[in-house]
Amino acid sequence: MKPTVAIDGPAGGGKSTVSRAVAQALGYRYVDTGAMYRVVGVLADAAGIDVGDGAALAALCDGLDLRFEEHAGGLRVVANGRDVSHAIRTAAAAQLASKVSVVPQVRERLVARQRALAAGGGVVMEGRDIGTVVLPDATVKIFLVASAAERARRRAAELRGRGEAADETAMQAEIEERDRRDSNRAHSPLRPAADALLVDTTDVPVEAVVARVRALIAARGNP
Predict the structure, then answer these.
(1) What is the model's pTM?
(2) What is the chain's pLDDT, residue by residue, as a tens digit (223 residues)?
(3) 171: which of 94, 98, 124, 152 fits an S-S bond (Cβ 3.0–4.6 Å)?
(4) Is residue 47 exposed (0-12), middle (13-18) or buried (19+ Cβ within 10 Å)?
């Protein structure tokens, strides 16, 4: 079986960019678990479902047809036949994702889907509890970190690139609050696995981070 690579870390740490690049370099499947929680949060909000209503969120998850489609312009996320790729990348979607992710019924259902996607190996999966909960036996576990200020700068640049307004000071405060919420939640808190390899991406070019992660994978005896 091909190796499984788990890449975790806080919001804005560079997980998506690095994970996708590593997956492409290795010819592996890339799975963005954070996008799954964003989809649930966005769909719940659109349907008027309270983010704390476990039963309603469970029903939403059970009826969710979710697909990830690679194409020339990037990763397309399709939920129930609707392209939500842009809708789930807003700052509001990030906050909704953090809130629904603490609901046990949501986590149970999405974790089951994530494990099914990783079956057979040959996958790079990124999120916040991949190495600790979703794939505790992953071949390689990476935990990316970066300062809150750097993560706010990245998110602001991303939003501005899409023509959206971005207040870096407010964004940093939101990121720090999300860090506290994710790290202190009772179910699957954000923390590195005991055997995870920490990589600080602050002020480090993406290409250098990707090279570092690939070197760590190679050092564990993988391609």
Answers:
(1) 0.86
(2) 788 999 999 988 889 899 999 999 999 999 999 999 999 999 999 999 999 899 999 999 999 999 988 777 678 899 999 999 999 988 799 889 989 988 999 999 999 999 999 998 999 999 989 999 999 999 999 999 999 999 999 888 888 888 888 889 998 998 898 888 888 877 778 899 999 999 999 999 999 999 999 999 888 755 5
(3) 152
(4) exposed
